[in-house]
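Email to the structure team, subject: UPF0056 membrane protein model.

Hi all, the expression group asked for a predicted structure before they design truncation constructs. Nothing fancy, just the C-alpha cells so they can compare against earlier work. One-line instruction: predict UPF0056 membrane protein, return C-alpha cells.
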Amino acid sequence: MIDILHDIAAVAESTTLVVGALFPIVNPLGSAAIFINMIGGVEQPLQRALSQKIAIYSFFLLVCSLLWGVKILTFFGISIYAVQIGGGLVVAATGWTLLAQGSSGVNTKTVGEENILDHAFYPYTLPITVGPGSISVAITLGAHLPAELHTDSIFSPKVLIAALVGIALVCFIVFICYRYASAAERLLGSAGTSVVMRLSSFILMCIGVQIVASGIKAYLATVHQL
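Reply from the structure team: attached below.
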C-alpha cells in the first residue's frame, strides 16, 4: 500500500514537472493572440473545430517528441542543436513576419473557411503552437523522466501516465485559449488586440532568437570539450 502511494506521488510530481516545463514555452495565452489574428473572423463552430484539431495535433506531436524524439534524431543523424538552430530560425522568421505584416495566416476569403482546417497542422500547430523550443523540451523530458521515476524504460507505465497526463493538460489549456480567443478579442477591442498580438509576435521572434542562441552555445560547448 505504501509503495502504491509512493508511486502515485512520484507520478503526480512528474506530471507537474511535465506541465511546468512545457506550459511556459508553449505559452497558450500568447499563442492564442497570434492565432486569432491569423484566422480572421471565422465562424464560431469553425474556430472550435480548428482549435480542437490544433490541440490534438499538439498532443501527438509532443508525445511523439517525448517518447521517440531521441531515437528519431539518432536515426537521421540529427543533433538536438540542429533542431534548435533550424527550428529557432523558423520561429524567429514567423514572429518577424507577424510583427511586420500583422498577419501571416491563411486568407479565409481566398481559400474558403472550411479549407482553413487543412492548415491546422502547419502553421497553426507547428510552429505557432508547438515550436522547436517545445519539441526540445519534450525530448529532454523523455530523457529525464525514466530516471526521475526510477525506471529504465521510457515506456514504463509510470512514465507513460506522467507524460500523457501532463501533455494532455497543456493541450487542453491550448484548446480553451484558442477556442475562446475571439471572446477575449472582443473584450480587449481592436486596439487592445493589436497591442497584444504585436507584443506576442515580438516575444515569439525573441523566443526563436533565444532558441538559436541556445543551440549555438550548446554546440560550441561540445566542440570546446573536444
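The chain is about 85% helix and 0% strand. Residues 2-78+100-181 form one domain. Ping us if the truncation boundaries need rechecking.
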